[in-house]
Amino acid sequence: MERLTVDVDFLRRFERGLDPAHPERSQVPARVLGYGEISTVFEIDTDDLRHLALKRLPIFRTESEMESFTATYDEYNRLLEEDVGLNLPAFGHVAFVTEHGSTTPLSRDAAAAPRRRGRPVFYILQRQVPYASIGNRAMHVLPREGTLLLVRLVLQELRRVWEYNRSQNRVQVALDGQISNWSLDGFDPQQPSVDGKTRLYYLDTSTPLFRVCGVEQLNPELFLRSAPSFLAWVLRRFFLADVVNRYYDLRRVVMDLLANFYKEQQDALVPDVLAVANEFFCTDVPEWGIAPLTEPELRSYYREDAFIWSFYLAARKIDRFLSTRLLRREYPYILPPAIKR
Fold first, then answer.
1. What is the torsional sign of CA 194, 197, 203, 204?
2. Is the separation of the CB atoms in 212 and 171 below 8 Å?
3. What's the whole-model pTM score?
4. What whole-number distance in Å separates Cα of residue 166 and Cα of residue 131?
5. What's phi and psi for 201, nearest 5 deg?
6. Which of 107, 188, 192, 253 has its C-alpha lying 20 to 30 A from 210's C-alpha?
């Protein structure tokens, strides 16, 4: 695996001057490439960094948390690339603490963390892929048959993961198969095409979910760090386990993949991609006994999912207002604009 490195001092300066509400107005201007629930992907236009996508995770409190995540993240990438056989862009990572214009070592004392003014920040480095090659962009310029073939290729990549999981009992790997998490190698948006030999790259390794002997290696509480405090207990009690478990269930991962077509305003293609997925279940992995998906089921799933995430984003914006305007506290998370669904 190729490992990326950067000028850590420069990244520290970038973090110190970052304006989470307006990243483009930061002391070192940055362009947001994409938003996740706990991470934001940046591009910084310098000679050393413009070829990289930087994913920022300001969710940690102690050194031990950061070290544990680092080990989990490295092993997840190794599993996907070496054991499962997926293609991943070159990657690396940087961790440090910012403290009013300086950087300090991370504290191992969890109780002391709230008293420390510094904030631990973890950056994932990933070699940037062409924007037009990412699945949710490519699907808008590909002809219908090309888009259906793209879905078939993604399903074949997913099959690699679950074949690995079924081949042994010790390690179970999860994956978020959304169309936006895949990139087509060599894709030309001026002459958009795809064939059965097109190589896909998997992009989203920032949530390294895998279990060893049934034990989750990623601390699931990290999912709740960016959640509003007034919602965290509800999410923990009613949603957290389900959100984590869905990425270990191939049927639900495929359902999420197909639901992206509603999100991308490609409703007309839903019957076709649904047929592709059900054919995959029936002919490629019949021995796995996966029940076919139906269009009403898919539509209901998407509507519920869209409502939950829209509500969650609205709650985070309220939390940001309460933190910055009323409590005069720093709000370290970068929130996406309203998402068209």
1. positive
2. yes
3. 0.87
4. 34
5. -110, 135
6. 107
The residue whose two tokens read 């996907």 is 80
- Per-residue tokens: 209: 């979910």
CB 103 within 8 A of CB 97: yes
> What token pair was written down for 55?
């994913």
What are the backbone angles phi and psi of residue 334, rounded to the nearest 5°?
-100, 120
Residue written as token pair 């499962």: 84
C-alpha–C-alpha distance, residues 198 and 278, integer Å: 22
In this structure, are residues 91 and 80 in contact, taking their beta carbons and an 8 Å threshold?
Answer: no
Does an H or E element contain 153, and which?
Answer: helix 144-167
Q: Provide the 10 A C-beta neighbour count for residue 219.
A: 13
Can you read off the two tokens belonging to residue 115? 């008293």
Q: Give the domain ranges of the chain.
A: 8-127, 131-326
Write out the DSSP string of 120-144: EEEEEEEEPPPGGGBHHHHTTTS-H
Run means of pLDDT, 10 residues per run, the chain, 341 residues: 83 86 82 75 83 89 87 96 97 81 41 51 92 95 97 98 97 96 96 95 95 95 81 78 91 96 94 98 96 95 80 80 79 72 57
Give residue for tokens 């939950």. Answer: 308
* Inter-axis angle of helices 295-321 and 229-238, nearest 10: 150
Q: Which amino acid is located at 210 in the chain?
A: F
Matching residue, tokens 């190589």: 199
